[in-house]
Design brief:
By secondary structure, the chain is mainly β. The protein has one domain. It has strands at 2-10, 25-33, 37-41, 53-57. The radius of gyration is 15 Å and the shape is flat. The chain starts with a strand and ends with a strand.
């Protein structure tokens, strides 16, 4: 187990109003990470990306 500090993006303003464009705010969190998922995303017109990207979910 590991306790850590991490940054996350949160939509505090429109979180419950899904049709609105999110206004993301950076937030600092402290806690215990139990799982980390790393996804490799290929370049794709469907994802509007021209280069491969890594998505990390914790």
């Amino acid at each position: 187990m590991s306790f850590t500090c991490y940054e996350g993006m949160e939509d505090n303003i429109h979180a419950h109003n899904h049709p609105r464009t999110p206004e993301l705010v950076s937030c600092t969190y402290f806690g215990q990470l139990l799982r980390v998922f790393v996804l490799g995303l290929p370049a794709s017109p469907d994802l509007h990306t021209t280069l491969p990207k890594m998505l990390v979910l914790a």
